[in-house]
Design brief:
The protein contains eleven helices and eleven strands. The chain has 273 residues and is an alpha/beta fold.
Amino acid sequence: MMFKQLSDRVRACAPLIHNITNRVSMNDCANILLACGASPIMAEAVEEVEEVTAMCDGLVLNLGMPQRERVEAMKKAGRKANELQIPIVLDPVGVGASSFRRQIVSELLQEVSVSVIRGNCSEIRTLLCGTGEMRGVDAAFLDEIKEDNLLQVENMTKELAKRTKAVIITTGKTDVVSDGKDAYHIQNGNAMMQKVTGMGCQLSALTAAYVAANPKQIFDAAIAAVCAMGVCGELAFERMSDLDGNASYRNYVIDAVYRLEGDSLEQLARIEK
């Protein structure tokens, strides 16, 4: 897989990404987009989302802290993106935590065609089965991806990809990415990433940048983005000193994304089919 080419295109194209995203992680999402060579814009007022989306190369719909007006803004932005064939990344944050969240995502998927859905194992299971357990917005203990349930997670990811006609990214200790036909397992990353809020939101934003820069290779671009985030998680951990904690680690991850080169991504990505 041509990770160098996919990564280099992000910096060459500098895609503008519209984020209707989680307020908890909005600043970090903006910074990781800048770090990878893209540009962020945040707009969620229903009066302007269509206009803003029309000028962009990619759209992130992050469930975040859902409110009805915000949902309507997501729908308007999504429909405009579909009209203009702008790729959309959906992040169904905490979809298993409440019936309201499940209803919102159901409405979005009925009204908007998305290119990529990224979620943890509990979120993906909820989308597929309609119910799921969660620890707030985190995956439930029973849904943590392990060696003994990896094939089950792969099958679940493939099935949701078939149903939604989107590329599905299921994140965990091992990340699984599928287009419904093929599935790849990505072993990059570091356990410290679980100690920083919004890492998943940042990956969704990064995925949008990669997909927007490579719109004819959405599956490959999504895989490259997941590998890039995992590699940067590893590089960031190598910088940690005895005095550093999760706040420093967050900054080191963004620094690593800024410094990541396509050649390094190809060398350090650990992926198998």
